[in-house]
Amino acid sequence: MKKILLAVFCLALLLTMAPGASAVELKVYQLALNDRFMDNELTVTNMPVNVNGSIYIPYTAFDRNVTGVDLGVFYGQEKSDTAYRLTLYSRSGTYLTFDLLEQTCFLTQDGQREAQSIRAVIRYDKVYVPASAVCRIFDLQYVYTPTRTAGDLIRIKSDSAVLSDAAFLDAAASALQSRYDNYIQSLTPTPTTAPVPTAKPTPTGGSSGGDNVIVTTPPVIDEGGSETETPSEVREVLLTFRCEGSGALDGILQTLAARNLTALFLFPAEDLEANSERIRAVLGQGHSVGLMTGADGAAEALAEGNAVLERIAWYRTHIALVEGADQEERGALYEDGWSLWLETVNGVPAGSSLGVSTILNRIDRSSGVVRLTLDDSAATADGLSNLLQRLAGESCTFPPVLETRLAGRIYG
């Protein structure tokens, strides 16, 4: 019955995404460079994004090794514990430098350095830059063309472009629609067959359950009759940290950076100003930021929080943890465009040390993608490396916490 209700809900979600729906409108942007699309396949992590009414594109649009298109603009990055800068430059000596931590931008031409009012943002662990402004500075043409059934086409052209906009739109019409259709289809949940339950051995010692229960899996017998080790099931673990001022955020960031992992960091919506430096540090290292608030007045608190985020970090989030919200309140927030963090495993330490074994047992008893919530305490920072090592040894992976992975999951 739960699967049927979930399928009905997913269908309703897709209908709300359809053109003309009264709920949240799905905006799809496709990026073309000169006479070809930037990527072979349209995905949420490579398409342009709309930030406060302006179109932003990934900096990789200027990497000809990635796109196969030379726009005459190149890039360089400087990233360390104390700095994160992206510089776009041309052969003529024009340099446009975005400072991701300081949220500044400077244009250097003919030896003159001038501050700019534009900013770069981080989305999906990647730097995005304002398309129109960058094109204006580097003498590229920026063309925005809405289509009726295939989203909005963003085309950036240099003098090397061959086709006119009309000719390109005509030649690419089929591919444009196919890319759009495939992307929409990728958002549709794929039905899966429920696994056949297997009997688990009864715990010994008279235990009635709890964290001390150990469940083993019988070995697999190969065709030759010998016992072989059972293949480990790959589990995805989404890492999220509640940032409530416990003082160990720097240590957590260092541990994640050492393993080249990204996570979601949740900050109280009412304390963003006080956490401005921490938020910029988190974003500067490619992580995602979400908001925490209570159910009472959540919509207003989240809207105000996003306004503060824009001011202090040039960033907007659509991920929130709303504590105490019931099903109806979560549904209303989803209709407002929010993706909600609903944990499946609570790993926040109860004492002075991180309960690694307890967390592993809870993950073992859970199913599907694991949503693990930790905090920014010293206990978490001290035990995080051990936890990640143990999880990796259990064939766990740690994908980025993206808005699309949380969208629509309003029933806990």
Protein architecture, described:
By secondary structure, this protein is of the alpha/beta class. 30% of the residues lie in helices and 25% in strands. The chain has twelve helices and 23 strands. The strands form five sheets. Strands 16, 17, 18, 19, 20, 21, 22 and 23 form an eight-stranded parallel β-sheet that branches. Strand 14 and strand 15 form a beta hairpin. It starts with a helix and ends in a 6-residue tail after the last helix. The N terminus and C terminus are likely disordered.
Round the Cα radius of gyration to an integer and report it. Answer: 24 Å
Low-confidence stretches: 1-24, 199-232, 408-412
What portion of residues is helical? Answer: 25-40%
Number of beta strands: 23
Query: What can be said about the biggest beta sheet?
Result: 8 strands, parallel
* Measured distance between first and last alpha carbons: 15 Å
Category from helices, strands and their pairing: alpha/beta
Our count of helices gives 12
Proportion of beta-strand residues: 25-35%
Mean pLDDT: 81
User: What is the assembly state of the chains in this entry?
Assistant: single chain
Q: What does the overall shape look like?
A: globular
